[in-house]
Hints:
Rossmann fold, 306 residues, 7-stranded parallel β-sheet, binds NADP nicotinamide-adenine-dinucleotide phosphate, binds glyoxylic acid, 18% strand, 5-stranded parallel β-sheet
Amino acid sequence: xxxxxxxxxxxxxxxxxxxxxxxxxxxxxxxxPCQPPADYAVVWAPPQGFVDAQPGLKALFNIGAxxxxxxxxxxxxxxxxxxxxxxxxxxxxxxxxxxxxxRHFREFDAYEAEARAGRWTxxxxxxxxxxxxxxxxxxxxGGRVAQAVAQFEFPVLGWSRSRKQIDGVxxxxxxxxxxxxxxxxxILVNLLPLTDATRGILNRTTLSALRRGGYLINIARGGHxxxxxxxxxxxxxxxxxALLDVFEAEPLPAGHPFWTHPKIGxxxxxxxxxxxxxxxxxxxxxxxxxxxxxxxxxxxxxxxGY
Length: 306
Ligand code: NAP
Ligand code: GLV
């Protein structure tokens, strides 16, 4: 069995070494043109030429959860596309969102400013019931985030394509229920995959439907947000702030108005990082299962787009 590793923008060596250790029966190579074709590939943003040079490929393993970039390539239908299935990401997303929700709700930024000015001031306690948290996407990551936020006794709502049942979460499903989900939400967390159906879903209409004083946390993809629609809603006061981890262009270009807007917080696509050890263990387990003829979790449906 031959495995090839093609990671645009990442060093392949530690992945090659880790996969070789986990699968001693396989030959694991960092991809180079003219190499013999492989049975399995471990990839991040590979070029089309890489896919074209692998006629015998059984599966492509993406070292991220989102496959929007990979699905831009022409991949033969017989090749399974397998995304990372948690592999240590959901706990990171839960940390990120709970931190952001609590910081916003408890007004820790305002306390910090007061402390810097040497002032001992109290702020009036706020009602948790006035800060319902709505999660767009209740999959591997969104489901875990919804449960984590519910632990802090915030009202939690969730929206997905198919209907879910999660303790402590009011679940809505399908486009027809998006409006009901939004009007009940004040803090909106986006954990949808980027597909034809979800591109631009964070826009003037949907964000205006949130309760006044709404707060946006976008940790999925920059293409979900219509960037030009955000600042007017912040400046009008309809939205009280936004925490953005992902952007249409990454790195966020110098001079972009998001860098300096006082109500926007920015992290550099770091809300859930790929953890190499966990990811290699998961991918190696799935390669062995596929080689035995078994099915594996996390196979992408290219028609659906995730
Ligand atoms: P997932 O398990 O595939 O879950 C996707 C969720 O979105 C599912 O609940 C799905 O509904 C729902 N959904 C998809 N299309 C929908 C639509 N048109 N209408 C309503 N709901 C829809 O994905 P995941 O592992 O949770 O990851 C989610 C995304 O997070 C990734 O695609 C990636 O873009 C992003 N991400 C970002 C980072 C970062 O560092 N910023 C890291 C990892 C992932 P069903 O359950 O009904 O199918
Ligand atoms: C990161 O953005 C991922 O999709 O894993």
